[in-house]
Amino acid sequence: MLVFSLSIMSIMAFDVNLTPIELKDNLKIFQEKNMMEKINDISNFVEINEIRDIANEANDTVPEAQKPQRTVEEMNDSNYIYEIPDEMAEFPGDVYAWLSKNVKYPKECQKDSISGRVLIQFIINKQGKIEEEKVLRSPDKRLSEEAIRVVTSMPNWKPARVKGKPVRMRYVLPIMFRLNKKT
Questions:
Q1: What pTM value is reported for the model?
Q2: Contacts of 158 (CB under 8 A, 6+ apart)
């Protein structure tokens, strides 16, 4: 019995006036509390992973700290795609003004009252041209098709640069489709 008491004493405040049944009850409470902390840790881990999955789905990247380190050889490869270059690629003018002039809301989606945001990812190559476009998230296939159409018709961008040299860069662009509210 002395070994049992010493193990409890090392873990929680020890009261010498406790009966063996009270010691057992206190140990049970401690074990339940410890188990709840473990469950909370697991649920926090699941929540964090779900949040990370949503973020990764949106921008198809992971935080810099968790990315595998790239070697100099990989980065010198002309096909390497940068997430965060020294100088970001730039649209010639205001990209959202350009989109508002060029996006054509699909009539079928207007009739069906379908609206929402399409997330489209693409690569801006060394010449500033758009390539490898793909939809990451969309409320409707017809909205996705319009987003791809408008992105592929964009003028050339000013390419991203690393150490003064043009490089390929991944870009995620949200395109909003909103229905006008009738008053």
A1: 0.58
A2: 89, 90, 91, 92, 128
Start-end of H helices in the chain: 2-11, 20-59, 72-76, 95-102, 107-111, 141-152
Q: Are 172 and 136 in contact (CB under 8 A)?
A: yes
Separation CA 121–CA 15 (nearest Å):
63
Q: Which residues, including other chains, have CB under 8 Å from residue 179's CB and lie 6 or more apart? A: 105, 110, 113, 115
In angstroms, rounded to a whole number, what is the distance separating the alpha carbons of residues 106 and 172? 22
Query: What domains are defined for the chain?
Result: 2-59 (no CATH), 82-177 (3.30.2420.10)
What's the pLDDT tens digit per position in 137-172?
A: 999 999 999 999 999 999 999 999 998 999 999 999
